[in-house]
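Box 3.1 A note on notation
Throughout this textbook, protein chains are presented in two layers. The first layer is the amino acid sequence; the second is a token string describing backbone geometry. Keep the layers aligned when reading.
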Amino acid sequence: MANEYGDLEQLVNDVTSIDTARMTLRWALERLNTIEKEKADLKKNLALAEETAKRLQVKEASLTDAYSSRSKTLEEKEDFYTKLEATMSLLGEGKLDIQQLLKKEAKLDSLRHSLENEYSDKFEELDRNQRSVIERWNARLLEVESQYAGRLAQAQTKYDGLRAELEGDYQGRMTALQASFKSRERTLSERILGLETSVRQSEEKVETRRRELEGEYLSKKRETEENYRKLKSMLEAGLEDKIRAMDCDHAEQVRSFEASWQIERARLLQEQHVREAQYASAQDRIKEIENALAVQQEAHHSELLKIISEKETAFRGQLADLESEKSAKEATVRELQARLEKKAAAWDADRARLQSEFDARLESMEAGLREHTVSLEREYAVKKEEIENLIAVSREEAKKEFDLRLSAERKKLDAEKARLETEKQEREEALALNSSRLKELENALAATREEHHRDLMERIRSGENSFREKLAGFEEEKQAYNKTINDLTGEIRQRDAFVLEAKRKIAAEFEAKAAVYEQRLARTEALFEERRLAYEERIGALSVKLEEAARASAAEKERFRNEISRLSDEAGEIAEKRAAGIRADYEARKAALDSDFSAKMQAVHSEASAQIEFERKNWNAERSRFENALVEVSENLKGSQEEIERLNARLREGVADNAQKEAQFTRELAESRVTYEKELSSRVKELASAQSADLLEAVEVLKANEADLTAALEDKENVIKTLKAEAIQEKRDCELRIIASVSGAVALRREELEKAYARNQAALEEDYRARRAALAGECSLDSGRLAEENSALRASLEKAQASAAETSSKAAALAEKLLQAEKDFHDEKLRLQKAQLEEFDSGVAEAVNVAVENIETKLRHAQEELAKVKKESLEEMDILNEGFAGEKDRLLEEIERRDQYIEAADAKLQDLEHGMMKYRQTASGELIRNISEQDARFRELAADEKERSAARVKQLEDLLAAKEKLLADSDKFYRQKQLDLDALHAELNMRVNSSNEDIFAQKRSLGEKEKALNELKLKLEKEYAAKSSELEPLKMELTRAIMDYKGGK
């Protein structure tokens, strides 16, 4: 456990992303829950098996006791009736000897006393055995209770030690985590303060630099305005060339911008077409996958229905066999009812045999019970070891899988960090390069301006000196033109003021639009950065969700596989009564699911098309807005150019009047102007080329960054595609494994059931043949014995009739020979003889009637016993049918619930796929829109740096929150471990309760056996009392007959 907490601490120290931490903890918790569920299922199956074994043992014992008690009762009754019939036959034959009868009665008394002594000895022996068994069980119970108390004490001490160790380890880990958290918090706060100070310093530097630049710009502007006012007269002639050159440059820039815009637009349109083609291919692939899934589901359900129909036919065949067997048994019962009249004399030997068999079976049952108890204990120990081994193996597998996943996630995180670092370094290098180039450009511009100003002032001084020398000669001529020149100068000043005002307005508008565009660009970049971060977070969340869904699907399918295997094992004992209803319900649900799926697909397609149309409209509106802005700028430039041309035309018209008079002055001024313009144009071209090269390089850097971002997004999409393909492949593999396991389990169960059915059928046929042969032999013996008895009775009757006839003939002869004196004596004698004969005939008739009544009572009892057995068998059949129907309904409910689980899992997968498709569509739209908004990204370096610093501060804050959440998750993990320990303690309690229940069940079985023995003893005593009460009237009748016989003699 300490090693596990050490690994967890190492994981906590290694985690740098809150998504990775969540994924790791969630995966570990789900794995633990899966192991606990499997453990609970195994315990439940073990408990069910033990309960089934106990029920079967109790039922077997009760049936054995009932059979033995009934056989004993029937044997004793048959013995009594046999003796009674023998006595009555002797009475009917007239062969009854009083002395012999008395001897038999004395022998019967001695036998009764010996039987009573034997029964009392057996009862005492049974009591001694019962007391010994009870004493052994009490000793065993005491031993088990002592062992349980010792093991419970050991478990409690071990639990207390583990809990103390866990609490100490947890406290140590918590203190270490708190110390590390505080140290990291201090380092983070120090780094945040350092970053804030660096940001403030950079802002102050930027502000000072801006103020310096503004002051320099204002000073240069004033100097330039002064120089412009001084050199206005010299620059008027070259204004048109400058304007033309500016127009050419502007037109060239506009053409280059338009060309780049057209190229970028073509590239974006091509990317959009590629995205649309990819989306269409993805839609086709999704449709193929959905069709494949539908085909697999159809095949799976058809196979299940086929298996169900085969089981139904097999069950119906078994039911028909059972019906035929039932009819055969009923015919056998009817035959037995017809033949029971002949079964009377063979039960004496059967009684002794059954008594010996009962004793042997009782001893064998006790030995089997002991062996079964030992085997159950051994099986429990083996199952316990297997479960512990399975738990250890599953823990090892979970640990290995966790380590592999952790290493993979760490590698991905390191690669992502390296990529972000390289991207950051590239951006910082580009920013440094652009800032250095900007500084070089500013320095070059300042140096050029200073050099130009210096050269211009020198030339102006030299021109002024030469002009002063020449001015003296032309002073007189110029006086006449002073007024005209002053008027023209005022007009030119007004026009210059107007031109300056127009230029100022144009510059202000240009700066305002540039500021607006810069603000838009800054907002766009901020929005792009936020969306990029959100996109990455959503990709991470989706990957986590995909992994969670894969794990949940794997766990659900594993549990479903276990349930299906268990249900397939139980399916042999269950019959189906609602196959047609299930099929109809299945078809209805399938149709409803198909309609819902088609509706959802149509809604998703409509939503996707609406989203794409909306993105296209936004993109077209943005493009038209930019085009309108460009058209507006070009129109403004054209208007300013036309205004400048009009002013130039008016200026040329005013200057043309004085061209001849100022030819020499103009020529010299033109020469200096030409040289200045050449130098100025060359320098301006050099500056423009340098600036355009820098701008092109910046554009290339931005395009490279965009390409990198596009590549990163494509990599993310490829990762999503691979994850989706892996999830689909895993789903297919799981379904194939489920189908294979179900079909294999069903085949194995079917073979086992067929073998068991064949064995049971063979055993039943053999038992039926044996019983039929035994009954046939017994019936033949009974019929022979009854025939002999009937023939003996007929012979005795004939002898009695012959003797009566002989006596009557002798009486007639003596009556004729005697005298008339002896007539009364002979009449009295004849009367006495007739009375004796009538009494003898009535005695014989009564004996025959008594025998017939006894036989009828025997038949009636046998019929009642047969009816009772038949009723019990019918009740058992009804109970079995009810249990069968209940188990069948439960199996159908389980199958429906499994189908619902499968449909829910498919719906979840479809929802995830739709979410991924929708997210890809929105991401592609956002990417196109962000790329379209990057055309004006030229002046964003300072704002980007500031935003990155703010994002870094926010990232640090998020990291701090993630660490706090990680501490909370560790607390949650400790609580989960505490719950696991409590569950272990509850499991121990459950095991103790199960052992107590086993002991109670054994006590209850002993109590039932004791009760059965007492009932048997009472029954024997009652039967003995009944036999004694039945023998008393027989004794009295015999004594009366003997006395009558003596009196008559």
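The longest helix spans residues 663-817. The chain has a mean pLDDT of 66.
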